Amino acid sequence: MTTAENKLVGKDDQHFDVIIVGAGISGIGSAYHLQKNCPDKRFAILEMQDTFGGTWKTHKYPGVRSDSDLYTFGYDFKPWVGDPIATGEEILNYMGEVIEENGLAPHIRYGHRITACSWSSAENIWHIDVTRLVDGEQLKFTCGFLWMCQGYYDHEKPYLPDWSGMDRYQGVLVHAQLWDPNTDYTDKRVLVIGSGATAATVIPEFAKTAKHVTMLQRSPTYFYCDENRNELADRLRLIGIDEDTIHRVVRADIIYKQYEMTQLSESDPDSMIEMLRDQIRSYVGDDFEFEPHFVPKYRPWQQRLAFCPGADIFKAAVDGKLTVVTDTLETFTEKGVRTASGEEIEADIVVAATGFNLKVMGGIPFEVDGEQVNWHETVNYRGMMFTGVPNMVWVFGYFRASWTLRVDMLGELVCKLFKNMDAREAKRVEVALRDEDQDMQILPWISDEEFNPNYLMRDLSLLPSRGSKPEWRHNQDYWVEREQIPATDLNGSEFVYDGHRHR
């Protein structure tokens, strides 16, 4: 089949070499790499929503923006030319350009919700049950390989604690993930519950026109504050360097700086904390009081360090537009909430910025030869493949670096895997523990010492397990993986092709 024929995918076709699940940042990036490296593979992208974008389609709250710089959150193959911290709309525009420039639109099936995936070893095929949302029709797809790019949280049901008295509250209570853009908060008292990246995004936007904003947090969060510009990129543009080169150089520079920060966070957290504070002071003055509302209980990078452009949330506090309360919520009242210490906070609108519910593999039930897959009982290989589950990869990005860095890296590796399967004339590949792994300790997906946000710790038992050896885990260290993953020996004894292990 020629490349031109490959692109002519009919809307009624239901068997493909590869099906990519999700048309978000991971799915679109993976499709690019697949089309570039394996033009002979027929593929489709199944997307539950009515358009592309994933997270950037789901989130509509005020000021929605990236918390990673776009030079590294953007793809390695398409230069980013805007501000490092981009709005949700700018990211969607960028993704739309990738789809258009690479002819990916004909491959995407929107409004297709997967309800079950079942692998047959007798056929070496995945059977995929789908509901087409526009008319409710039940469809069946098949494919040789599944590329799971649907993210790791529930896009429809965010995490909302079951607070006492919620039914008593007379104002507007909404989770940030379910925000209606038509909601008018002008001259309203707004209470934001939470202190993470979402809270830091909505609060400066609310503060522009709201009567007042209060942030109620159980514990503070670290933020990296800097100008929303890249001095190196601006300089290179000024002297006439082309955008491809600028993207490559600036991307490398940012990645190295992130590496230095990560190392400092682990080796000398006190110095890292002081550096972060100095950045904040440069915007709000040396007299800014960090105690008690801006002193997190964990070391930097045990939870995500979000980019806060221009220290805007701290400026809102200094300007009197934001009040911070560090306490736990005891109950809702008719007019707002009461904290455990007895403080009453009245609000016209309460926004829960309380995170999301983890959803492994999109919550889709999986079977292998009629047996239900329990993901926690599988052991992950480099965070992308799982023991006992053939012909499937899962894209799970980084917490301490841009998610998309792993999308690009795995995209290249998976295409190498396809070529290796073709060279071996193999129809099936899976990973399995080797003889030397039989006594390996099996552990939870990630250590709470390494990374411990609430959304992960709440549902750690839903995630696949890891082994104590580095290859049997997702180690969340891009700076190690960028060497290890491209060097993966696809003929190593952990890979089993058509039931045979290479020794």
UniProtKB/TrEMBL annotation:
Key word Ligase present in the record? Answer: no
Keywords assigned by UniProt? Answer: FAD, Flavoprotein, Monooxygenase, NADP, Oxidoreductase
Which Gene3D superfamilies does this UniProt record tie to the protein? FAD/NAD(P)-binding domain (3.50.50.60)
The record's SUPFAM superfamilies line, in alphabetical order, gives: FAD/NAD(P)-binding domain (SSF51905)
**Source taxon at top rank:** Bacteria
Q: Name one Pfam family in it.
A: NAD_binding_8
Q: Name one GO molecular function term.
A: flavin adenine dinucleotide binding
Keyword flag Disulfide bond:
no
Question: What does the record give as cofactor?
Answer: FAD
Q: Which family does it belong to?
A: Belongs to the FAD-binding monooxygenase family.
Return the protein name. Answer: NAD(P)/FAD-dependent oxidoreductase
Q: What is the lineage of its organism?
A: Bacteria, Pseudomonadati, Pseudomonadota, Gammaproteobacteria, Cellvibrionales
